[in-house]
Amino acid sequence: xxxxxxxxxDVLKFISFDYLCSNIQGKDFLFxxxxxxxxxxxxxxxxxxxxLYLVDLNDDLMNKVFxxxxxxxxxxxxxxxxxxxxxYYSGIEGKQTAVLxxxxxxxxxxDTSAYLKYGSGTNHTWQGFYSTDRDTITNLVLDMxxxxxxxxxxxxxxxxxxxxxxSIHIEHSVxxxxxxxxxxxxxxxxxxxxxxxxxxxxxxxxxxxxxxxxVTGVVSYSxxxxxxxxxxxxxxxxxxxxxxxKFKGDFARAYFYMATAYxxxxxxxxxSKPENMMEHNTYPxxxxxxxxxxxxxHRQDTVSQKERTRQEKVFTIQHNRNPFIDxxxxxxxxxxxxxxxxxxxxxxxxTSSLExxxxxxxxxxxxxxxxxxxxxxxxxxLIKCSGLQGDVTITKSGTDATSFVVSTASITQADxxxxxxxxxxxxxxxxxxxxxxx
Length: 438
Fold this sequence. Notes:
Elements: H1 17-24, E1 29-33, E2 36-40, E3 51-54, H2 60-74, H3 97-108, H4 125-132, E4 168-172, H5 188-191, E5 196-200, H6 201-207, E6 219-222, E7 227-233, E8 236-242, H7 245-261, H8 288-300, H9 305-318, H10 323-326, H11 330-334, E9 351-355, E10 377-384, E11 392-393, E12 404-406, E13 410-411, H12 413-418, E14 420-426
């Protein structure tokens, strides 16, 4: 029997042993609590369980599942991988402020030929959203503008990726009117998934082309997630759009991305609109009041696993990345507290946060380092695991094992559950290529 659960709170009396075996490796975290089997999809916020299935543990089949589960847990193997392509950011080493920003612009916009066309249908935005903004278990449309629950149909692909009409819009987080885009003849910025999101129709209409901000006066619209109303800053007073606190960093990094990727729109930004947060230059592009606001949001709402997961899916489609998700401290070097300082990967405080997954011991994963200076190169990872039956051990081996230093050899079960940072440092004693295994 094969049973593929679709929606939350489905009650099961059986789970196919084939289903368990085919889905546990490299995909799901499964663990048993209070006569329940919980399944948490990796790369989601740690505290959130996307599916909860009630089961009868007295059933013989479930006893087999439980035994198989313990077996897989006892064979647990941590899998760390780097998603950023080798040399993708190598051109920014040693650069600072405006020059650093332009170097990132050149990387992002090197090739925009893979961008999906704007709208619905095959090879259009909604096909992208089906990958980037869909809960892969429930088919829920992930919407940062509303908590309304809307789902992609089970036959959505067969329907050739239709739109959702007025219920959900394709939202340009940075309003397209700010650069005078005609949506009937969209340009690259209008089609860039790094700042396009599915948005509740009513919230999007209310947002209009107003800037980001904190509502301090009369509220004209609120749905519990999005709020529109009066806000005042030194440099701007008027209607603003305030997202939920948990999404403020997401929007800030999307705006920093747009100010970088499209700095060549220097003459397109419509400065006759007081609500436009951009101005006519290639640096800093953002107005000072906007920089102050976005820096605050970026610092308070740090990069989430949701952003990282979406980043990888966008990269798969259009082959470019938001550098402020990969290396959040780049924001400081361009607009913030480290402006004027040369950027170096060896001193970067950027964290690549990865989750552990169940994998067989034959899995091969690669972590790549680029060393262009005399300083050692380190990378920090946040290791989070679910369903452990013991502590996690980290080992290294191979001819060049001494070229790599791991900050800890083990992580307690308690620390691994809440998340533990591990630093891997590449410190070779001689030039060349070095390989080690863990």
